Amino acid sequence: MGKNRKPSSVDFGIRVGAVVARDGALLLVRHQKPDRDPYWVLPGGRLEPGESIPACAEREVREETGLSARFSGVLYVSEFLRDGRHTVDITVRMTPEGDGEAVLGSDPEIAPGSKPTLIELRWAAADELESLELLPVPIKGRLLEDAPGGWPANRTYLEGDGD
Question: Which of 55, 81, 91, 99 is deepest in the core (most CB within 10 A)?
């Protein structure tokens, strides 16, 4: 921390969301959290300390959908500041490997015996995205914009060692 910086009470995190497409449809997971209406998101979750973005995306896709997928590039980087939270959201493109079928996984952060937060999994065609409660809204907008091109990754990802 710099000399003049004070500790922050803001919850800061980096979330990695994965675009996994098949035959023009996106793989989505539906969450149900306490005191919230259900909503759809791309498979993904919080980047863990020491974990690379590609490794996080691979782990999250596997945990939430049972699929093995390979990192193909970065699509979008966005930022959300509200309600005491600051989230950097990195949306990546993942290419499924093998011929496995997606199955609803689980969130390992939920205590055993607790009600699951992941409640549904589906492949949504591009024309269905508009009618879904897909969050975050700015990502939904970009996904709709980029649907005709099949969500191509721009391959922008520079892995470094901090030097």
Answer: 91
